[in-house]
Amino acid sequence: MMRLLRSAVARWMIVVPAIAVVALALTWGRHLLGFVVMIVAVLLAGAILAAVHHAEVVAHRVGEPFGSLILAVAVTVIEVALIVTLMVSGGPKTASLARDTVFAAVMITCNGIVGLCLLVGALRRRVAVFNAEGTGGALATVATLATLSLALPAFTTSRPGPAFSPPQLAFAAVASLALYGLFVLTQTVRHRDYFLPVGPDGTAADAPGEHAAPPSAQAAMTSLGLLLVALVAVVGLAKVESPVIESSVESAGLPQPVVGVVIALLVLLPETLAAVRAAQRDRIQTSLNLAYGSAMASIGLTIPAIAVASIWLTGPLLLGLGATHLVLLALTVVVSTLTVVPGRATVLQGGVHLGLLAAFLFLAVSP
User: Fold this and answer.
1) How far is CA 64 from CA 126, 192, 333, in A?
2) Whose CA is closest to 88, among 313, 305, 318, 315?
3) Domain count of the chain?
4) 3-state SS assignment for residue 345
5) CA–CA separation, 146 and 154 (whole Å)
């Protein structure tokens, strides 16, 4: 029975990206009726799930930590495409969209995904165990990137408002790329063992299912192609849905930054599902690789892309966080440090991180 179910799911994961692309071609640039909006939303969710499935197939083929890196970069491609597309078509009201989306991604990954995975792992084994050396390095990189790109613009004086001057923006973009590239080199080459799953005693260990036969090269290449198709469908259908999202936020009387939160929640759904699945298999290190890797890619790749796009974008590019978000960022870094340093976490740490995410979401709706 389970084999038949898995076979049916695998077939759907092949069909859904194709259907989503067809729907994208039929709906692009058109005003959609209510029932069509619902159909597009369902196909968008299906394309996201398909992207998760095919990214995991590719990840299983290449192994850790390359698999986590693939999914993190794939998610960031979606995020960058959505931000640039909406900023081009949205006018002055989208000047802070990049900041709102990137900060929302940082809070969702560092508090939401991390907290949820630690909670799942601790409930399963009482204590969630991971490699503090690798995870600590990832957290340090995320904190540095967030400070350079999101905190400093609120204090610089070269340009009025929470914005970088062109030279400052260029420096932030180059520094972000350099730090992200250095982390990738550390994670995949020089200290790869720091990012592999560990056992209860803190030493490297295999998780259940780790020795399942990896997919063939042909299957992995097929999944890679379908992953690209699914990502195109996700970006396109999200763009089709974006007017509905923006009008819904406006009609509900919610602040404009909520749009960035919705985008971040949407694009991070694949990452969240993959991370929780890893936590359920006692692979907490893989979950943390996904969470911090996604936060790092969200800043380290998005800010340079937005910096390049700003050459053609009209209006200011607001990157500096307000006082409330600066406090939340500082608290997140402190709590995350205390969580990571021991290399072990209980349900308490998971609950604290989820509490911080809840505070961020509440203050986004009611600033």
Assistant:
1) 25, 9, 26
2) 313
3) 1
4) strand
5) 12
Higher pLDDT, 2 or 361: 361
Distance of CA 54 to the CA centre of its chain: 17
Output the pLDDT for position 263: 80
Exposure string of 287-308, with b = 16+ CB inside 10 Å and e = fewer, is bbbbbbbbbbbbbbbbbbbbbe
Q: What is the CATH number of the domain that holds 252?
A: 1.20.1420.30
Q: Determine the 3-state secondary structure of 204 from DSSP.
A: strand
Contact 301, 80 (CB under 8 A): yes
- State the DSSP code for 168: H
Cis peptide before 65, with omega less than 30 degrees from 0?
yes
For 263, counting Cβ atoms within 10 Å of its Cβ (0-12 exposed, 13-18 middle, 19+ buried), the class is: buried
Question: Does residue 216 carry a pLDDT above 90?
Answer: no
pLDDT digits (tens, 9 = 90+) for 123-132: 888 889 899 9
pLDDT of residue 5: 54
Q: Alpha-carbon distance 46 to 53, whole Å?
A: 11
DSSP state of 159: S
Whole-number Å distance between alpha carbons of 49 and 194? 29
Q: List, in sequence order, every residue forming a beta bridge with 345; answer none if it has no partner.
A: 128
Tokens standing for 284?
């907490």
pTM more than 0.90: no
Range of the domain at 25: 2-365
Query: 3-state DSSP: the chain helix, strand, coil percent, rounded to 5?
Result: 80, 0, 20
Question: Which secondary structure element, helix H or strand E, spans residue 128, and what is its range?
Answer: strand 128-129
Per-residue DSSP letter, 150: I
- What are the structure tokens assigned to 231, written together? 């990502």
Residue 343: φ, ψ to 5°? 75, 10
Phi-psi region of 81 (alpha: psi -120 to 50; beta: other; left: phi over 0): alpha
